[in-house]
Amino acid sequence: MNKIYWNSNVKVRLVGEGLFNLLFWMYFPFLTVYFGQKLGLQTAGLIMVLPPLLSIIGSLIGGGVADTLGRRPVMLIGTFLQMSMFILFAVSSSPWIDYVAFIGIGIGAAFYRPASSAMVADTVPKDELRQVYATFMTVNNIGAVLGPIIGAVFFFQYRQLLLWTCATVLFLYFITIYFIVSETLPNRSKQKDNTIPLKSAFQSQWSGYRLILKDRIFLIYVIAGICSLFPVMQLDLYLPVYVIENVPQQPLVPYLMDSFQLTSQSIFGWLVGFNGLLFVLLIVPVTNRLKHWSEKRLFVMSTIFAGGGTFLVGWNNNIWFLFGCTLIFTLGEIMRTPVTQSFIGHYAPEEARGQYLAADSLQNTLGKSLAPLAIYASGWIAPLGIFTIILLFAIIGACLYLQLFRLYSSA
Can you tell me whether residue 48 is helix, strand or coil? Predict the structure, then answer.
């Protein structure tokens, strides 16, 4: 690769973040189950609402500080915070301390992320950014495929070992950043008032909320997005609870006596890994195949696929049926991916496009905060009832998208 941008800073990030992303997917999908077992499903559903909201604050502060003090200090602080929280998680004997550690890990990652992305943008020529980000995405997807399959064994049987391994990797990454990574903050940024970027970040976030409330079409778009994301986000929330509690141990290949036996934990790990593999293999061909579809059709069909595929999970416990359901709702995710920002790109006024894109990200944040309520409701509603609620969110989202484009075409 071109030595101009593929320097030591980028190499260190690629290796370090690739390793940690693998470890991340070995524990993250199973945390909802863990807190559900320790604290009860209703409590687990409520407490999972808070981390996404706190991550917004961490990201805003990290981005503001990265533009003033520099990228490297923010990356060091974010890495050290995550390492410390993993150590706390590993030595803890209380699920509430575990929850505090989990929140700390999320805040540390959110604090780190803007500085890390900014360092790539500082270093890489604009015409090569897409290629570099594609490389990072490929490495991250490998972790998303392998991590859940391995974590299904390690998280439940060797959790302390897994947590100490995460802490060790982050410690080595911290040392590597400290001695190898150099600062990339542009000189002009160092001369700015340190209070301005952070203040502006919070003002931008607040103005995004106000923008949604003022623009009726955009308000419908965001609410529709929240409803359509509700089924998608259950992969890391309600689905692990359902699969681990309701899907029995079974062979990977039916009717073969010596077939590899999978526990319910392993089955969920395979489903998440299959989801990641489908993304890697199908994102490009599916996007190319559907490039002539209208945005209206893509939004509606992706929402129905995601909701319908998730709904079907509750109807049969056979592993290959579950693989089929995973294929359906993953296709819904893939169909949605390329069209989410293109709509805002041509809908938003040119002078306010950045503000609209910032406000558009709120649907993801609000969706993450709303989605754990499915776990809370599962404390007194049967699984099929929960899957019906998930499907209803998808239907409401699809109807809102139809209304959105009806208003948009007549505006």
Answer: coil
Give the structural domain span for 387: 193-411
CA–CA distance, 260 with 234 (Å, rounded to integer): 27
Strands 261-262 and 250-251, sheet pairing = antiparallel
Residues 58 and 22 in one domain: yes
List beta partners, residue 261.
251
Closest CA to 28 of 46, 51, 12: 51
Whether the CA torsion 261, 263, 264, 267 is positive or negative: it is negative
Q: What is the spatial distance between Cα 198 and Cα 114, in angstroms, rounded to a whole number?
A: 13
- The DSSP H or E segment spanning 155 is helix 129-157
The CA angle 80-85-88, to the nearest 5 degrees, is 130
pTM of the complete model beyond 0.85? no
Which CATH number do you get for residue 6?
Answer: 1.20.1250.20
User: Cα dist. 212→10, 141, 219, 332 in Å?
Assistant: 37, 32, 5, 25
The count of domains in the chain is 2
Q: How high does pLDDT run on average in the chain?
A: 83
Same domain, 335 and 226: yes
**Position 240 confidence tier, pLDDT thresholds 50, 70, 90:** very high
Last residue of a domain, one of 171, 191, 211: 191
The HSE-up count of residue 307 (CA atoms within 13 Å, CB side) is 27
Residue with tokens 């990652």: 109
Q: Which residue is listed with tokens 């607040």?
A: 206
The beta-strand segments (E) located in 141-190 are none
Give the Cα separation of 163 and 247 in Å (integer). Answer: 27
Question: Helix 50-66 vs helix 195-214: angle between axes, to the nearest 10 degrees?
Answer: 130
Q: Please tell me which residue, 362 or 77, carries the higher pLDDT value.
A: 77
